[in-house]
Design brief:
With about 290 residues, the protein is of the alpha+beta class. Helix content is about 35%, strand content about 20%.
Length: about 290
């Protein structure tokens, strides 16, 4: 039977002990101590790593919880506009950025607002109606994808309110309204547009959409007559309220509806909001009457 030409570890230790004139037991003890120390150091390193990872995870979790709580608070503790009646007093609006405006006048039927300029991302809605569930959902998702990262910068932007829905003339891109999603109809084609108001901090430095169905436009400053109402929006409801607003504005001593003005609808709340607390608005662009 062949044997190894290399000495066993015990023989090796014995030779080392003899060479250094140290007792064999001392060498073995020191080797065991060194091994135990090495094992302890490795264990300590693992424990330190576990604590570091746990601390980092806890920190990330805390940030996520804070972010979640902050976003939830915007809906749980909404803000309210000045109200003209009990219906408006019950309406709530998420505490999100919206289009800046100044109220010029108010009566028991409508109010006149002066809107500051803003940018919107918009898309043409499928179908003939502005407020059918299928068309609205498709358009909302297309715009939401752009807002939350489907853009050339691959960056998510903050959500605003309201969503704007409006009619437009097929020959132009006259854009109105504020933070809601805007839906507008292209008159001779029975088409509508939906828009998201962009965060004001972005200004004109907005990333381009990756989806060609989304376009970015600047809405100039303008003056509008606005009526607020609660509940869920329907095309029939919009037609009725638009007609009523136009009739009321005929008796306004200071403002008149501009020629060719088309209605725009602002919706401020997420779908899960109770109908009687939802805030919707219809608006028509107006100008001051000449003295």
């Amino acid at each position: 039977m062949s044997q190894s030409i290399y000495p066993s570890s015990s023989v090796t230790l014995a030779f080392k002990s003899m060479a250094t004139e140290q007792p064999l037991s001392s060498v073995v003890t020191r080797r065991r101590t060194t091994t135990a120390s090495s094992n302890t150091s490795a264990l300590e390193a693992r424990i330190s790593l576990v604590f570091a990872l746990a601390s980092q995870t806890s920190s990330v979790s805390q940030r996520l919880l804070v972010d979640l709580a902050t976003e939830t608070a915007k809906y749980v503790f909404p803000k309210r506009f000045e109200s003209r009646n009990i219906e408006e007093a019950l309406m709530s609006v998420p505490d999100l950025e919206t289009v800046k405006f100044k109220v010029l006048s108010r009566n028991d039927q409508y109010e006149i607002r002066e809107l500051e300029p803003y940018f919107v991302a918009e898309t043409t809605m499928p179908g003939k109606y502005g407020f059918d569930l299928n068309g609205s959902s498709q358009s909302f998702n297309v715009l939401a994808e752009y807002l939350f990262g489907k853009n050339t910068a691959n960056e998510a932007m903050e959500m605003t309110t309201p969503v704007l829905t409006r009619r437009t003339q097929s020959g132009g891109e006259a854009m109105d309204m504020t933070t809601p999603v805007i839906t507008k109809r292209m008159e001779d084609q029975d088409k509508w547009k939906m828009s998201f108001v962009m965060p004001s901090k972005c200004g004109s430095n907005l990333p381009l959409p990756k989806n060609s169905a989304v376009t970015i436009n600047e809405v100039p400053a303008k003056t509008v007559a606005v009526v607020a109402f609660s509940g869920f929006v329907t095309d029939e409801d919009v037609m009725r309220r638009e007609s009523k607003l136009r009739d009321a504005l005929k008796n306004d001593s200071q403002f008149k509806v501009i020629s060719g003005a088309l209605v725009e609808v602002a919706q401020y709340n997420p779908p899960f909001t109770l109908p009687f607390t939802r805030r919707n608005e219809i608006s028509l662009e107006v100008v001051r009457k000449q003295e």
